[in-house]
Write a structure and sequence with these properties.
Four copies of one chain form a homotetramer.
Chain A (H helix, E strand, L loop, with lengths): L1 E8 L4 E4 L4 E4 L4 H7 L5 E10 L6 H13 L4 E5 L5 H8 L6 E5 L12 H12 L5 E6 L2 E4 L3 E4 L4 E4 L4 H4 L2
Parallel strand pairs in A: 1-4, 1-5, 5-6, 6-7
Antiparallel strand pairs in A: 2-3, 7-8, 9-10
Chain lengths: 169, 169, 169, 169
């Protein structure tokens, strides 16, 4: 088993810079999380961007898609900011023969209390168990791409009740 | 989605009792882990035993099997000590129409550094993604029952290279 | 033994608000830290302000000074942002008969890796051991007020080598 | 400022060995705690024993005393199991001109929830603030040697109400 991890920034990667009293996207904590999970499979981590997901552009998404299409790996876990995770997932929809799971966290991985470790574990459990396709793993659930939205008021991901726009596409 | 969690003890549940300078099986940390993972699915936690897995008897395993067979739930995450996890998985093999994922941890969940949170996340990602059957989720991998052993010297789970005894059964 | 804790904000109190992808001053973590330290002395926590220390005004400092002067307590631990901690300490200099220790942290208390717990412990150890006066406890050291500055480039507190401005006052 | 840290084992140092499902004294976590506290003073850590404090012998205590007497350092933080911490403190009583603070923890330092970081911070705050002598820093309080006992039922350190045996010595 081989998993390619692609990091793009988002809350999961945020660190605190005292000098500016600000919270910015920093190094991905994913290697530490994999060490803590004592994983024994082969993997590689690629840092694609370090951005708040609201700053990820259409060009960025196409670059991500191109990278995955041209990569020999079959299983991908992509860490991503939560605000536009569903949008990026939609762009990856047309990729065939690969299983891609997007995840992230609502609290930074560097916090004492964070959903980051749980979510990375969940994404890894899902990516090796699912058929090819694009999925979002958040809030304990693995959603198929297109059937999930972020409820910003409640700060959680939810299943879309009806999705007529997709049926018409 | 509904997941039934069944706890049976093992390292994942261990606490430290200073009075005896000993480490014993205590309350399951699973509810805290699910809260940290901000899960939004329905679930219930059943504490079946609180035992080191070396102390789990054949009767215990039959009781666990009976409980699952008679339960209306379809998805189960079972936390278990690592030493006999594979043995318990084998007993559950004959159950039909349910997805059962066993997991645990090599370091207690109450430790700063533990694989417990990661493993529970992985088991949850797997249980909702897999076909019915019995699986073991440890060391970042989801193994089908019968194809995995604990390498005690290395303190990790590994795929069985060949398994002739099983073919003959 | 009775200790009055006064919180004023600063990095130690910072929380992360995903909605704004920002890091703001939140509830003080001091009660959690005292519980973790299993303290058995009597204490009380007063939240005076919730500010970045660069936003603390001269009026705020006078209000803090007035509060301490009129308080029956003799031992104070004051949590404070690091940037103007020394300035606030200087304002408290003229208070007689009370031991006041200012501390804070360079990383938020809610981080996995933080100096907050250590620093609160250090301040508590110092406040009950020292003669009346104003002190700053940071980076493992208890400095007398007036003999310490924050080296912003290195992000740590250091002893002032010479302090002629003070001798002239 | 220079502080000599001497580790002797006890709960603070305990690690978990899955192979035996046991909890044993391991490497001292003190260097990690000092890094987390971002200390900037000079220090050195000496591992004297790795024992449950009930196993520390009179010879061990004399060896510890001899080490401190012959050491050029003036400030010592000694980590120690809690059960016989007061007994060891009594043996060190006759050392002159040095400040010695004993501390430890009621939960192992490797636990998510532990008093170890707080206690090490407290001991460091105390050792640089106190007159020469022997002290015990536990449960948020710095006790002079001879005026403190461990209340085993409550699992905490308390001030001795009266101590006639000491007055007669």
């Amino acid at each position: 088993m081989f998993i390619r991890f692609i990091t793009t920034g988002g809350t999961i990667d945020k660190v605190y810079f005292d000098a500016m009293s600000q919270f910015e996207v920093g190094e991905s904590p994913i290697s530490n999380i994999l060490a803590e999970g004592r994983v024994s499979f082969d993997y590689n981590v690629v840092s694609m961007f370090q951005k708040d997901s609201l700053e990820i552009t259409d060009e960025d998404r196409e670059a991500l898609k191109g990278f995955i299409e041209n990569d020999e790996a079959k299983a991908f876990v992509i860490t991503h900011g939560t605000d536009t995770m569903a949008k990026t997932a939609a762009v990856l929809r047309s990729i065939r023969g690969k299983t891609m799971v997007l995840t992230g966290s609502l609290n930074p991985a560097r916090f004492k209390t964070t959903d980051a470790v749980f979510n990375i574990g969940m994404a890894i459990g899902a990516v090796q168990s699912l058929q090819p396709g694009v999925y979002i793993a958040m809030n304990g659930q693995v959603f198929a791409e297109g059937e999930v939205v972020k409820n910003r008021a409640e700060n959680r991901f939810e299943k879309v009740i009806s999705n007529p726009s997709r049926h018409s596409s």
